[in-house]
Amino acid sequence: MSIGKKTPAKAAAKKAPARTKAATGKVAKTPAPEGHAAPIPADLLALRERIDGIDRHIQQLIAERAQFANQVGKAKGKLAAAVDYYRPEREAQVLRRVVDRNDGPLNDEVLVRLFREIMSACLAQQEPLKIGYLGPEGTHSQQAVYKHFGHSIHGLPLGSIEEVFQEVEAGHADFGVVPVENSTQGTIQSTLDMFLTSKLKICGEVELRVHQHLLSRSGRIEDIERVYSHPQSFAQCKAWLRQYLPKAEKIAVGSNAEAARRARSADDAAAIAGISAANVYGLKSIAGPIEDRPDNTTRFLVLGRELFPTSGNDRTSLLVFIKDQPGALHHVLAPFARHGLSMNRIESRPGHTGLWQYAFFIDVGGHVHDEAMRRALDELDEYAQEVKVLGSYPVAIA
């Protein structure tokens, strides 16, 4: 078909009489010819035109924002890589203002997600960030990556938490995302153990509401004889499994995405995983959400190679090796109380420095550069064998 020539349909449309009165805007009463859509009411047309105008304005503003973001990148000078342009404390401040301005009707989570994607796309003009995470594709770790960094990144699915640390340390990934604790099943010990020797810093956190689904190739629960999943997911769904699949074999694997990948090979197999894994591996959802607690949430940490400035609402994670003496833990915690710092979390792990020696992972409200935090850490040195600042980072947003 030649460009510019009128097709018979276009010619007929041109000859057809107008269905609306230009003067009044009212819809004509003439019934629609057979095979044609009914005329659109004038008030609906007006609303659509308003929405189209707003869409054009939004697009213009996004383009303008991207241009300014590009100028900011140039103002910083020629930097080595995309990671040098990324400022998590600045993003946190922007997103907090989005939440503060929000009067509805969209909720905070939706607006934060929209602005996160805009910032992600603007940053990717320089170069997409490379983000390592516990793979393969379809894991909750991948969802946490997208929630924190947006979709305009280059994801690197890796085989283990240890490998995520290694790839960031080697500079092959700009940042890494690893799970650290679940609201119902507690701490992911392998993540904490990596901090005993790693030089990486925590530069962000993500809280992800985790919904588990039973997925299979056939989509029929009566076919299921074995279920694959990560041990944490089995623990999160044990009551549901006991009620509905008491006789099925439970097989633990390294990730829920790996479980989905195995389940797609047989009709008598199923996986417990997020719904995104069903989309990636072509499975059907038999049931879900099936987690025992509806508030099931996993906290993830963002790993980087440096500390960032304060965002105004931060958390500091510490690794403290205490001296073996009476009241040692009390002496370690007391400086935080004296300086008005709230301790959010404490966890002990074998310190790997000697038999029955322990290290304490402590989360405290505030930034390491805050005056109160500096004074507390100075006092801590008197009673602690070693204090390691794992990171100061913005508190998770929406």
Automatic annotation (TrEMBL):
Q: Entry's SUPFAM superfamilies? A: ACT-like, Chorismate mutase II, Periplasmic binding protein-like II
Organism field: Lysobacter arenosi
Cell division in keyword set? no
Q: Where is the composition biased (Low complexity)?
A: 1-11
- Protein's UniProt name: Bifunctional chorismate mutase/prephenate dehydratase
Q: In which pathway does it act?
A: Amino-acid biosynthesis; L-phenylalanine biosynthesis; phenylpyruvate from prephenate: step 1/1; Metabolic intermediate biosynthesis; prephenate biosynthesis; prephenate from chorismate: step 1/1
Q: Which Pfam families match?
A: ACT, CM_2, PDT
PROSITE patterns recorded: ACT, CHORISMATE_MUT_2, PREPHENATE_DEHYDR_1, PREPHENATE_DEHYDR_3
